[in-house]
Specification:
This protein is an alpha+beta fold. It has three domains: about 5-220, Immunoglobulin-like (Sandwich); about 360-535 and about 565-580, Rossmann fold (3-Layer(aba) Sandwich); about 610-700, Immunoglobulin-like (Sandwich). The protein contains 13 helices and 39 strands. Strand 26 (about 455) and strand 27 (about 460) form a beta hairpin. Helix 3 packs parallel to helix 7.
């Protein structure tokens, strides 16, 4: 949960330099320390596991702002207003890192679990000293670019710790100032209205000062109607196989084209095919209004392999990183050694375009994926399956002290973000075992599957027998061809595209059902038990985009989830997770519950569901918001309020029969009547006729 008290204001946006100042405050009554395994875990709303393994596990909070064009962050200062010492001696536990893998004797088999969480290992250079950790509450600043918008971030640690004396203190109020100045290395882009609007809709839910997006937008260029905003890239031999999808995208209002690798070879230079493709994408993005790209091809020249090394362990070998094709701002080979995605390279980690992949060179498989992508938007069955979510949580480390660590933990976090109008089916594992009807549920219909478990290239697994959750041993039992689902998982390796027929690929290629989109890891998924780990956070951010912010297209949900995760701060192993979790599917695929009125590939006009702006906005305490529905007989209309972490903080049911419009007074408190912390909040109206959203800023009383 965001807990700053902010009224972020850009100062002198047209001047050579400027500042953003905001107030930080800790809400009263929150629990600051949890006892765990004989030690202490400090915690605060919005705090992430940020420090390296072995260092004290003090949560860090990051705030990201849009800043003027041509600027980079130069630093940040904090003025502490109040700070409190927490009574007692505190043995703060260190950060612990582990993965969720199986040991494998073959490319698609699993024999036993990899190593689970080991003991808590303390960095002696820190724990045998009484020097305050961290040395400064401002632990990092960062500058990034998302489709021409400049973003500046500051990460702060509210807690400070003296290990030998066990002293733990927390900042309860502070004033933070983020400074920026002109940077000649920042390229000022001229983009189309479509590109700017597309990025702005995503950034409104990410930055802390959405009101400044208009003032900080990139310069706009005129649009040439002949420029495609959606392209598929592949060899000339499969152009005819992709043409139906190109035609479908054109019919839905996205100017689309097929771009052959031969034409890229002839017109763009690069060290290898991957760099030539990226150089084409960069040119089309910067000069022709490109928004979506579908990369077609199996293991080989269309896949960029990351060489990222974490902690001296080069486990990213054979690690596909499609972020290489969507993050076009900086360089993925900044040191020129032709090893890509390293920490020594100059990577931005924000998306500039939305990228998806059809991972095959076999025409039959490609034809299947094309057919499924079109049918999903034109022939999907009606019914409650469109708003049904299946949450599967395996035993991640059941034997870890004291009560185990379970996939149900992240599933429960996702569950809180799902609208009340949806049906949720939970299949959780415990020490007594697990249900095993997940394939039957898929066949009855579930539009979204969160499958959180262990993994290998052959699938996602339960901890206890029978082990197959969704694997190469049971996917052929799926017969949901008219109720295709999307899968998103934090498990290790089921998206390892370097093997022959990994689980993610088979779910996409299965003609009788399976998936229309899969977001799986191509290497290890990482956790930091007992804290929420980086792979889990990506799952939560995706749920925010799907359920809270109402993003329409599945590829945009994935790109926005990564952007939001990046904006949330540089937590441990974040870059690894951002590189490895790839999107298989058409990047412009419209999620099934957002397809109201699609027939024959044509998008109907908006449903007519409207939610007006909050008044006043910013608000101190209560405010009002108007709403409008296309008809009076809507019995499931609900108005909900979320903080920027995606937590639902307030809701109410609109009175049936009260007419097609009205005004609601929102109290500015949560369900218990407690005043909500100052910050930015999302208002969302859900009804059977559609959804609408708006934003409000609370400033406190």
């Amino acid at each position: 949960m965001r807990y700053i008290v902010f009224a972020a204001v850009l100062l002198a946006a047209s001047a050579p330099a400027g500042e953003i100042s905001f107030d930080f405050s800790l809400p009263r009554g929150v629990r600051l320390v949890t006892e765990y395994a004989g030690g202490a875990l400090p915690e605060c709303p919005g705090g992430l596991t940020w420090f390296d393994e072995g260092q004290p596990n003090l949560p860090v909070v990051t705030h990201t702002f849009v800043i003027p064009q041509g600027m980079s962050v130069t630093g940040a200062e904090m003025e502490i207003v109040t700070e409190a010492v927490i009574d007692g001696f505190h043995n703060v536990l260190p950060v612990r890192v582990t993965s969720r893998s199986f040991l494998k004797s073959g490319p698609n088999s699993r024999d036993s679990f990899g190593e689970g969480p080991g003991p808590f290992l303390r960095d002696p250079g820190i724990y045998l000293s009484d020097e305050v950790f961290p040395a400064s509450p401002v632990v990092a600043t960062c500058t990034g670019t998302r489709t021409g918008f400049q973003l500046g971030s500051v990460s702060i640690s509210p807690f400070s710790y003296n290990p030998l004396s066990g002293r733990l203190s927390v900042i309860t109020e502070a004033r933070i100032t983020l400074s920026y100045s002109p940077d000649p290395a920042v390229e000022r882009l001229c983009l189309t209205e479509g590109q700017i609007g597309h990025a702005r809709a995503i950034l409104e839910n990410i930055v802390d000062n959405p009101r400044d997006l208009e003032a900080c937008r990139p310069e706009e260029r005129e649009t040439d109607d002949s420029w495609p905003v959606w392209v598929a890239i592949g060899p000339a031999s499969i152009e005819a196989t992709l043409q139906p999808l190109v035609d479908h995208r054109n019919s839905t209002g996205l100017e689309a084209a097929y771009v052959t690798l031969d034409s890229i070879y002839a017109n763009y230079t690069g060290y290898d095919t991957q760099e030539q493709i990226r150089n084409y994408l960069k040119h089309a993005y910067e000069n022709q209004g490109l928004i979506y790209a579908l990369i077609v091809g199996d293991w080989g020249p269309t896949q960029r392999i990351s060489s990222l090394v974490v902690g001296g362990d080069s486990l990213m070998l054979a690690q596909t990183a499609d972020l290489y094709f969507s993050d076009l701002t900086r360089m993925w080979d900044g040191d020129g050694d032709h090893l890509y995605g390293e920490n020594t390279d100059w990577i931005d980690y924000y998306s500039d375009i939305t990228v998806g992949r059809f991972s095959s060179d076999v025409q039959l498989h490609i034809a299947t994926m094309v057919s499924k992508a079109i049918a999903y938007e034109t022939e999907s069955a009606e019914g409650a399956w469109r708003t049904t979510a299946l949450l599967c949580g395996a035993g991640l480390w059941p034997d870890v002290e004291p009560d185990g660590y379970w996939g149900s933990f992240v599933c429960d976090s996702i569950s809180k973000r799902i609208p009340p109008s949806w049906t949720q089916i939970r299949r959780y594992e415990s020490r007594s075992g697990h249900p095993n009807d997940q394939i039957d549920i898929i066949n009855r219909g579930a539009s979204y599957v969160s499958d959180q478990g262990h993994g290998g290239p052959g699938g996602v697994y339960w901890y206890y027998s029978p082990g197959n959750m969704f694997t190469n041993q049971n996917y052929t039992g799926m017969s949901n061809s008219d109720k295709l689902t999307i899968f998103h998982s934090m498990a290790c390796d089921p998206g390892m595209l370097s093997v022959n027929g990994c689980s993610a690929e088979r779910l996409m290629m299965w003609p009788d059902g399976g998936a229309v989109a899969v977001m799986y890891n191509s290497n290890y998924g990482w956790g930091t038990p007992p804290s929420v780990g980086p792979s889990e956070w990506l799952e939560i951010h995706f749920a925010n985009q799907l359920f809270v912010f109402g993003i329409q297209r599945i590829g945009d949900m994935q790109a926005a989830a990564k952007d939001a995760f990046k904006a949330a701060g540089g937590m441990i192993l974040q870059n690894w997770v951002l590189q490895e979790n790839n999107y298989l599917g058409d990047p412009a695929e419209v999620f099934v519950s957002r397809q109201t009125g699609i027939e024959g590939g044509q998008q109907s006009p908006e449903s007519g569901t409207l939610l007006g702006p909050a008044s006043p906005n910013p608000a101190r305490g209560a405010f009002s918001v108007s709403w409008s529905l296309p008809g009076p007989a809507v019995f499931d209309a609900t108005l909900e309020m979320y903080d920027l972490s995606g937590r639902r903080v307030w809701s109410c049911d609109l009175q049936a029969g009260s007419g097609a419009s009205g005004t609601v007074m929102v109290p500015g408190t949560d369900g218990t009547g407690t005043q909500l912390p100052s910050g930015c909040y999302l208002l969302r109206l859900d009804s059977s006729s559609g959804s609408a959203a708006s934003m409000v800023i609370l400033l406190g009383k």
